[in-house]
Write a sequence for this structure.
């Protein structure tokens, strides 16, 4: 029973794509990836070299330099929330201002062999102050640490709220104050929090590190509720913010910090030492002696598998084959709910469940000889992924959802079959799962199907999008038809014979379609935090290596069954040959 029957999955690329298709797919994706690389570089640059030079002139590192010095040599850095506030401008007295990445860097990386969440104020953007959506971005990173029970490291260099936009950052359900509640929740769950204070930490910037288990301050750092500029008599007494709340005060008098260190480098070394004191990762134990291995079919080929037209299909099993170790996979319920793929593979040597939409037309078991379009949830598929999701939760197996979905089946037959009930069952399952879930928007993420397949409202640990992801209630053309339905016949053609009226309807429908297409841009979603990060398809395997290992890192934080007693085996036996 302990045997997990992994089998080879996938084929060499040239067996299912001809050279012209490979060229066309690659060229189309490369154009998107060139934009992705360019925009990443823009965000990473902050406010530019002038502000980098100012930071260096103070004897300090930038946020990105601190991350690089903190992480293990050669360790990957996986960003989260790069494009928050992308394309947003703030009018300050006629001057347009931007906040690249909302003025904060949040990443997953390895320190002393352990995955950690790092939250670092970008001190090249308004002295690391909090802009609209900065608090929410910080809180999202804290949620990742809380979900996975992995250490959270704060690299604090924050002058508080960006005051001209305070009304959009201070109040609200997830406003700046909610950061401190997340601090408390992490502490209550025993998740290690370690803070380094590197510079101005005013108001909320001063509160953020305090609940951490260990707090280090450099000699030029200070933490204050209010700086010298707001304290009566400070000017006449010649007091500085450093005098009011520097390391002399908070290490030796208030005990709000634990140790003082001379500079950035020393502080980062001390933080590394603290991370090394946290529990060792349980990932090697959970591998059971199995080494990590790359897929037999290279993950780099993922950039060439997707057709340029989102209406054209591809084989999602070939995608999975380029994500799992050795391209080995145990597909469960292969003969039921064929519009969905469910199964188990290893990623980085650790077991992981996959749930994915099939794009190609599928047999209709209730109408022999007919085909149904793929990318849609039908009754059997809904029941299949609901049961598989519950089984993964029971067995403690992390789940990766690979979304390319147009929505639920519709019509009189679908309603009579009770799809609303089956869908609600699936939503209940995903709302109550305790096992880590990760959602990937490969292409389409439409309607209630996006919700049902663990979309962001259902709180996956992380949601990733490719540059071709299309997130919406419905496609632009479909919405245009719905908006002008009274003007169309049963074939969705314009019913009027009046040339002027026809032209007006055509123009209106085209405008609706164009607006929806613009709204479906993944950078729009990322800017307003409707997805966590945009990555190249070929980057998905490295991200999953991080996320799956981080899922197994915490010792005793969640139930993880050994494969001998998996629920999966029971389900496989009961449905074998059905």
């Amino acid at each position: 029973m302990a045997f997990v029957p992994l089998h080879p999955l996938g084929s060499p690329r040239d067996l299912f794509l001809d050279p012209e298709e490979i060229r066309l797919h690659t060229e189309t994706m490369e154009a998107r990836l060139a934009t992705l690389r360019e925009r990443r570089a823009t965000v990473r640059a902050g406010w530019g070299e002038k502000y980098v030079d100012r930071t260096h002139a103070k004897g300090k590192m930038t946020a990105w330099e601190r991350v690089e010095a903190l992480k293990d040599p050669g360790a990957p850095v996986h960003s989260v929330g790069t494009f928050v506030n992308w394309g947003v401008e703030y009018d300050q007295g006629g001057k347009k201002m931007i906040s690249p990445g909302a003025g904060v860097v949040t990443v997953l990386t390895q320190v002393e062999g352990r995955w950690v969440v790092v939250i670092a104020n970008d001190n090249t953007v308004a002295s690391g102050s909090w802009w609209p959506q900065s608090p929410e971005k910080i809180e999202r990173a804290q949620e990742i640490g809380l979900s996975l029970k992995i250490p959270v490291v704060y690299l604090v260099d924050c002058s508080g709220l960006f005051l001209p936009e305070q009304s959009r950052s201070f109040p609200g359900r997830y406003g700046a104050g909610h950061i401190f509640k997340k601090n408390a929740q992490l502490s209550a769950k025993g998740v290690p929090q370690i803070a380094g204070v590197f510079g101005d930490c005013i108001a909320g910037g001063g509160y953020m590190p305090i609940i951490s288990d260990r707090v280090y301050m450099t000699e030029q750092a200070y933490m204050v509720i209010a700086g010298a500029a707001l304290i009566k008599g400070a000017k006449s007494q010649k007091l500085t913010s450093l005098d009011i709340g520097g390391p002399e005060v908070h290490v030796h008098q208030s005990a709000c910090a634990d140790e003082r260190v001379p500079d950035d480098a020393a502080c980062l070394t001390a933080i590394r030492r603290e991370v090394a004191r946290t529990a060792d990762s349980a990932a090697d134990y959970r591998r059971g002696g199995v080494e990590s291995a790359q897929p037999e079919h290279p993950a780099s080929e993922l950039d060439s598998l997707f057709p340029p037209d989102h209406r054209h299909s591809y084989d999602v099993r070939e995608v999975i084959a380029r994500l799992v170790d050795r391209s080995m996979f145990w597909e469960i319920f292969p003969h039921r709910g064929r519009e969905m793929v469910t199964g188990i593979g290893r990623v980085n040597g650790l077991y992981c469940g996959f749930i994915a939409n099939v794009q190609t037309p599928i047999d209709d078991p209730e109408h022999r000889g007919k085909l149904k379009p793929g990318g849609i949830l039908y009754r059997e598929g809904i029941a299949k992924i609901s049961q598989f999701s519950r089984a993964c939760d029971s067995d403690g197996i992390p789940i990766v959802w690979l979304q390319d979905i147009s929505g639920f089946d519709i019509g009189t037959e679908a309603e009579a079959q009770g799809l609303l009930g089956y869908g609600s069952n699936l939503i209940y399952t995903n709302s109550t799962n305790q096992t880590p879930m990760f959602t990937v928007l490969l292409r389409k993420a439409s309607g209630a199907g996006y919700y049902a397949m663990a979309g962001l409202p259902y709180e996956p640990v992380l949601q990733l999008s490719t540059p071709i992801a299309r997130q919406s209630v419905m496609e632009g053309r479909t919405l245009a038809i719905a908006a002008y339905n009274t003007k169309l016949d049963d074939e969705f053609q314009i019913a009027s014979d009046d040339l002027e009226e026809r032209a007006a309807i055509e123009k209106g429908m085209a405008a609706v379609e164009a607006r929806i297409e613009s709204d479906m841009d993944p950078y729009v979603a990322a800017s307003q935090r409707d997805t966590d990060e945009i990555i190249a398809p070929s980057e998905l395997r490295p991200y999953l290596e991080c996320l799956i290992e981080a899922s197994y890192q915490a010792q005793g934080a969640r139930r993880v069954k050994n494969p001998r007693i998996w629920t999966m085996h029971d389900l496989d036996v009961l449905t074998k040959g059905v």
